[in-house]
């Protein structure tokens, strides 16, 4: 898993750590994070593009011969600018993009593979949680509930408890987040299976974008 953030460290003033480069940071304390996503939505596309570029290079991905699945909530909020298609098509030159929410991938997997007509999906991220109901893979818009609570809230609560009772860790987000994740358990591979089972077959078109259906760009 590659973190979707850029880190500045107090002890490494001449270098920033982008995405996977955070593993190279020798000291994991007093880190300052720059995140392109706030409350589940991309609000800084320059930062997001920089992270994507480093990630594709690190994974040795050639976009011009690849297609990409993008879990994205931005297009559900018209007030927020969404330039993901422009960046992925025009800058990176991906051949195909499959764009959907993480909720949609899970619901479609449940309908197609597990044969469950009615499902309730909970998507809990870093700073938000969304709950939605689906019938035969179709979203029931009136059922969507969104709250600004996610893993960040739990990390901050742990920092408060430890700082109050033991020592001051108010600036040690990375350390406390690692402690939290080391004691959490979740099923492995279920989300990846959902994505693979719902992706369409490769199109013969030169460049295509899929949200709910395939169309030419």
From TrEMBL:
Domain of life where this protein originates: Eukaryota
Family: Belongs to the actin family.
PANTHER family assigned to the protein according to its UniProt record, in alphabetical order: ACTIN (PTHR11937)
Protein name as annotated: Actin-related protein 4
Organism per entry: Caenorhabditis tropicalis
């Amino acid at each position: 898993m590659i973190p979707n953030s850029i880190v500045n460290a107090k002890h490494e003033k001449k270098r920033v750590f982008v995405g996977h480069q955070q593993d190279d940071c020798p000291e994991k304390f007093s880190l300052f994070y720059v995140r392109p996503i706030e409350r589940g939505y991309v609000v800084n596309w320059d930062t997001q593009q920089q992270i994507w570029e480093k990630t594709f290079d690190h994974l040795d991905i050639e976009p011009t011969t690849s297609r990409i699945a993008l879990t994205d909530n931005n297009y559900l909020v018209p007030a927020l600018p969404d330039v993901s298609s422009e960046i992925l098509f025009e800058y990176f030159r991906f051949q195909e993009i499959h764009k959907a929410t993480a909720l949609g991938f899970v619901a479609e997997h449940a309908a197609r593979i597990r044969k469950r007509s009615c499902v309730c999906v909970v998507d809990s991220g870093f700073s938000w949680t969304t709950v939605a109901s689906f019938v035969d893979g179709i979203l029931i818009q009136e059922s969507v509930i969104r709250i600004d609570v996610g893993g960040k809230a739990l990390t901050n609560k742990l920092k408060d408890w430890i700082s109050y009772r033991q020592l001051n860790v108010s600036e040690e987000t990375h350390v406390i987040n690692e402690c939290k994740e080391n004691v959490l358990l979740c099923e492995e591979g279920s989300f990846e299976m959902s994505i693979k089972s719902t992706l369409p077959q490769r199109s013969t078109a030169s460049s295509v974008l899929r949200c709910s259906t395939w169309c030419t760009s």
